[in-house]
Amino acid sequence: MTVKIGVIGTGAIGRDHARRIEKVLAGGKITALSDVNMASAEAVKAEIAPDAEIFATGEELIASANVDAVLVCSWGQTHEQYVLAAIAAGKPCFCEKPLATTADGAKRIVDAEVAAGKRLVQVGFMRRYDAGYVALKSAVESHTGAPIMVHAAHRNPRVGNNYVTPMAIHDTLIHEIDVFRWLLDDDYTEARVTFPRKCARSHEKLRDPQIVTLKTAKGVVIDTEIFVNCHYGYDIQCEVVGEDGIAKLPEPMAIQMRLGAKLQNEILVDWKDRFVGAYDVELQDFLQAAARGTASGPTSWDGYMAAVTSDACVKAQECEGEAVAITYPARPALYA
Ligand SMILES: NC(=O)C1=CN([C@@H]2O[C@H](COP(=O)(O)OP(=O)(O)OC[C@H]3O[C@@H](n4cnc5c(N)ncnc54)[C@H](O)[C@@H]3O)[C@@H](O)[C@H]2O)C=CC1
Ligand SMILES: O=C1[C@@H](O)[C@H](O)[C@@H](O)[C@H](O)[C@H]1O
Question: In the chain, what are the domain boundaries?
Answer without folding.
Answer: 3-127+276-299, 131-270+306-335
